[in-house]
Write a structure and sequence with these properties.
- The complex is a heterodimer.
- By secondary structure, chain A is of the alpha/beta class.
- Helix content of chain A is 37%, strand content 25%.
- Chain A has a 6-stranded mixed beta sheet with strand order 6-7-8-3-9-10, with helices on both faces. In chain A, strands 2-1-4-5 form a 4-stranded antiparallel beta sheet.
- In chain A, strand 7, helix 6 and strand 8 form a beta-alpha-beta unit.
- The longest helix of chain A has 15 residues, at 150-164.
- Chain B folds into 2 domains: 1-30 and 426-477, no CATH class; 34-310, no CATH class.
- Chain B is 28% helix and 35% strand.
- In chain B, helix 9 (158-164) crosses helix 10 (166-172), helix 12 crosses helix 13 and helix 13 (437-453) runs antiparallel to helix 14 (458-472).
- Classes of the chains: A alpha/beta, B alpha/beta.
- The interface between A and B is medium-sized, with 32 and 30 residues.
Amino acid sequence: MSNTKPLFEFKNVHVAVEGKEVVNGVSLIINAGETHAVMGPNGSGKSSLSNALMGHPSYTITNGEVYLEGKNILEMEADERSRAGLFLAFQYPLPIPGVTVANFLRTAVKAHRGKDADMSDFRKNLKAEMDNLSIDHSFATRYLNDGFSGGEKKRIEILQMAMLKPKMAMLDETDSGLDIDALKTVATGINRFQTENTGILLVTHYQRMLNYVKPDYVHVMVRGQFVKSGGPELALKLEELGYDWVDEQLSEKAGV
Amino acid sequence: MSEAIRQQNKELSAIGQDYAAKYGFHDPVEYFHKGARGVSHEVVEMISKMKKEPRWMAERRHEALDIFYAKKMPQWGNTKLLNEIDFDNVYYYMKPIENQQNNWDDVPEYIKKTFDRLGIPEAEKKFLGGVSAQYESEVVYHSMRDDLKKQGIVFLDMDSGLREYEDIVKKYWGTVIPSNDNKFAALNTAVWSGGSFIYVPPGVDVKVPLQAYFRINAENMGQFERTLIIADKGSRVHYIEGCTAPVYSTNSLHSAVVELIALDDAYIRYTTIQNWSRNIYNLVTKRASAYKNATVEWVDGNIGSRLTMKYPCVQLLGEGAKGEILSVAFAGIDQHQDAGAKVIHAAPHTSSRITSKSISKENGRASYRGLVKVHKNAHDCKVSVECDALLIGEDARSDTYPTMEIDNDQVKVEHEARVSKVAAEQLFYLTSRGLTEDEARLLIVNGFMEPFTKELPMEYAVELNRLIELEMEGSIG
């Protein structure tokens, strides 16, 4: 297997929402086996970036390039990007009333594999993954995200990732709304997913998630740009000094 | 895109074109009797004579025809489409064969083929207790399992019911829906033919569903079946009806009257999957009387037709009676589904629940029209009404016309109405999991319908989901 191409790469990506630019020119290379964290204050553009990369129709990539395993995915619809191996765990997963978790997952798995999974294999697999994430089996027959608590929704997002087995997973504020036990369970699920062939992009406001999912690189996003990159120690520094610290540094650099 | 997905998408997109192939075909028929177009006292007399009916029925017919002439068209609903009906252009009575058969082998080949294509004999074998198949005005095939006959259960076409059980018919027929109820009930009473007659003796539980299938074949045909179901004290029955018709460029009329009587402690469920072709005006009156501690449930699915106006009703006449109406309407391109429900609480401690789900796609229009009336004497009643509408596309339209007339203050009323769109955010969520937009939309619609489909026998739930898939084909966001 030639591994010359990075798993996931975007160059100079600009994103506009309703004509307004919210991300202005970010670039990143994620190699297989790597975990990257994008941190930033509210409104810095980090959720817009992950939505745009997944192909949300309201988040237009106005400029730049995006490659998954060397393949340009900008012309692909969201469903094609998903089937190509890209995944986004949503910050606010939406309820789909009347569609059970099991039925939805079976439909999604079928869309990925191109054929219906063997029923008993599918059930076995689903139960095992639910056990891994401490999700009660009764959730299989509940309607997707309908009346779920914030924590339950996030676990179900990770369950979807475990079932679909993407190559590259973007996790948008997966830690928000979780108590410490739920956070640990979800983190275990994410760590189990990560192998030498997969990549993770964690989008988060707070450092606490990174205690359990260790990033190889941390990127700080402010006002639509990556302003600082470093190792895990950067996250700790941010935790200590806050985002104002980055802002101050930026101002100094600019000589303001 | 993988080859399998491509293949699957191809199949999905092919589905939409097959109403014509699957249901929309018609047979070239030499009718045993094909009347002239238009309705008159002569036509009414001819129908009655051909059926060799008792005189009292003939008189009811004539009386009803005069009421039909005198009554105005409804001034509500889709008045534009109603006024387009040309009553002089309709065939009111067509008899395909001389005698009804109770063995499929004896049914003429072309009719048998039709019902074969629709899967009726297969369903009979698999899970039904009895089957009635109506073609144009007459039931051409009828059969019921022997073990059910032995329990004293009567399941006949209405004409045979009148011949063989005249006393019961005379006692109940037209008592729930009198001729002067509305213009179309009057017309049905004047020219009725076919339909089902069911009588379940006291305490008998009909454990398997009984089914009638209605097929219109000829262009400009009017089908006016008449159904009467009586569940005697403490008995239980589930009746299912389905309907289809060929695709023609001109319109046909289907105007049925269905009366249900649930005596003390009895239970009736009446399930309809209406899948008429887009040239049918479906104007039907359905009403039930529920006596002491009796339960009546209407499970009413409307997928087809050009215009449907139908509001199944339960009159709660005895203390402790229950009524439930679950109505689903799918209004696709150029369709108007004006559906709903009515409940009359006329006794204390009665309860009712109405659940209406409608989907409008593109320029389709779905209306919920409902009435809940609680009479003065009906204390300690429970009423629950829930209306849900889903819109697909910018032009889709949904209207709600709920009316509540509550004349007693010891009543618990719950009412909820919601209109939602298939939201772009929902679509993105599902497509981000690998589903195409069409698959995502179908999943959302099927989910929306789930409270209805889960009430259907498995075979019908599968069929209904398939029909919806067909309706959803090629829809725009």
